[in-house]
Amino acid sequence: MAGRAADGDVTAFGVLVRRYGPMMRAAARRILGSNSEVDDVVQEAFITAWNKLEQLDDPRRVKAWLMRITSHRAIDRVRSRRPMDDPEDLELPAAEAHSPSRMTQTKATASALREVLAQLPDAQRSCWILREVDHMSYREIAEALDLPESTVRGLLARARRTIMTRMEEWQ
Asked: Cα–Cα distance between 10 and 1 in angstroms, integer?
């Protein structure tokens, strides 16, 4: 499909938009921390992809290529709004309905995690979110962020170490 889109087939590109758009939205939301800019980032990513389709070396790798474009756009957006917007906007999975005390504890822990994530350097936060929230492999993260896999592993190790240290009281 990517090969046909690269040849100027608008219908084929539409198929790519429908196929990969939801995944790109999810990745952008996790990097951005909220829904407010997700559609803009994904739209920018698709415009970039359309304009650079001829640069796609291997059409079988279109997913990783689109995710890399999306990640770069989202990270650029985060960098442009420094300091980070309200970390409360980060959407974490909802806690199961338990006792009120359990729900209060879960909310407090999630709030603390949001604060810790907001303080991480952009690259560490992006790697951590792509790995722990999006469940991407090291290779997929490396491709999405256009980084060597060893760099991704190092960024994740530093992010995890920081999170564990700062979240000790919540364990």
From this structure: 11
From residue 53, alpha-carbon distances to 49, 95, 134, 143 in Å are 6, 41, 25, 17
What DSSP string describes 74-135? HHHHHHHTPSP--GGG---PPPP---HHHHHHHHHHHHHHHHHHHHS-HHHHHHHIIIIIS-
Q: What is the DSSP letter of 60?
A: G
Domain extents for the chain? Answer: 2-170
Q: What's CA 100's distance to the chain center, in Å?
A: 31
The two tokens of residue 106 are 């879960």
2-170: CATH class: mainly alpha
Angstrom distance (rounded) from CA 99 to CA 164: 26
| Interval 80-137: pLDDT, tens | 765 444 445 555 555 455 567 666 767 777 777 888 888 888 889 888 888 887 777 8
Tell how far CA 39 is from the center of its chain: 13
Chain centroid to Cα 59, Å, comes to 22
Give φ, ψ of 92 to 5 degrees: -105, 160
